[in-house]
Amino acid sequence: MRKRSTTPIRLDQAVSGILLRLGGLAAITVIVAVACNVSRSVIADSATTYTAGSEALSLAHAGMLDEETGLRGFLETGAPSFLQPYHAGQDELEKGDADLQRALAGDPNLLTGYIQVRLAQGAWLSGWADVAIAQQPQASTTATFLEAGRALFDPYRASEAALNTAIDATIQHAQDMSNAVATGSLIVEVFTGLTGVVLFWRTRRGLRRAVVGPVSRIVSALEGIADGNYAPPAMSDTGPAELREIKQRLRGVAATLHAAREGVLHREREAAEHAARLRSIVDMGREIAGSLNLGYVL
After folding, report:
1. Burial call 109-135: b when 16+ CB within 10 Å, e when fewer
2. What contacts 51, CB < 8 A, 6 or more positions away?
3. Is residue 52 within 8 Å of residue 103, measured between CB atoms?
4. What count of other Cβ atoms lies within 10 Å of the Cβ of residue 64?
């Protein structure tokens, strides 16, 4: 078992130690709080980006549906008015794909899913939509052509659904991470608070034992000296070095005053004894003088 050091600690060292512990605890609290806030901010930004990607995918998918619906209506009816949603869908698809690429550029896994969606879009656009606009198949072959379009559109649906599921999972993961960081931050704050309470309690107890107690005994000794009690006070050699030195000097002062008082009392006793002897001599002289009275002799 390690022995406790017998070298007295100085008061400034004790105060520095207390301030160091409190400062360290405060620094840890600040660092953890800042780290948690930064983490939550980064996670929130990531979730916002993925949410924007999900919205961009929905826009692109709406564009694909508008194109597919418009072309099918045009091929089945021959009415040019069905080409209006087709052209509107082109603009939606272009914007949605561009926004989606920007949102997923930092995630290789999601970017792979985006590439698969783009390949499926391209297969349907070049293999069916562009042909439908350019050749406008005859009524006798329309049904077969529509089935061929559906056969190309279904793989796109599957890839879009897979990417949408992956983005939703990533957003949920980011939200779970944010909640975990918030929970961890709360746990650390509670732990730091409890540690601060324990540290405060131990510091207060240590100060009472090392400073308040010795100072109280010094004050009591000074009050005793002020009341005329010059006996050296009984005080334990505990507490910081400065207080120990004060107690030692106080003992010296008390011992000096006690010795001086004893000297005064001794001189007073000697003076009283001399006075008593003098009175005895005077009384004896009077008696002798009385006995020599002439009248008394005759």
Report:
1. ebbebbebbbebbeebbeebbeebeee
2. 171
3. yes
4. 26
Determine the angle formed by the axes of helices 108-124 and 83-104, rounding to 10 degrees. 160
CB 133 within 8 A of CB 19: no
Write the pLDDT tens digit of every residue in 140-171: 578 888 899 999 999 999 999 999 999 999 99
DSSP letter at 238? -
* Residue 279 tokens, joined: 């009175």
Residue with tokens 């991470």: 177
The dihedrals phi and psi of 107, each to the nearest 5 degrees, come to -120, 105
Q: How far is CA 132 from CA 150, 236, 289, in A?
A: 13, 105, 166
Q: How confident is the model at residue 187 (pLDDT cuts 50, 70, 90)?
A: confident
Radius of gyration (Cα) for the chain, nearest Å?
51
Please give the model's pTM, rounded to 2 decimal places.
0.62
Q: Got the DSSP string for 142-202?
A: HHHHHHHHHHHHHHHHHHHHHHHHHHHHHHHHHHHHHHHHHHHHHHHHHHHHHHHHHHHHH
- Residues 50 and 109: their CA atoms lie apart, in Å, by 13
In the chain, the amino acid numbered 91 is D
CB–CB of 158/61 below 8 Å? no
Angle at 269 between CA 264 and CA 274, to 5 degrees: 125
Neighbours of 86 (CB within 10 A): 21
pLDDT in tens, 215-259: 677 777 677 767 766 566 665 666 666 666 676 676 767 677 767
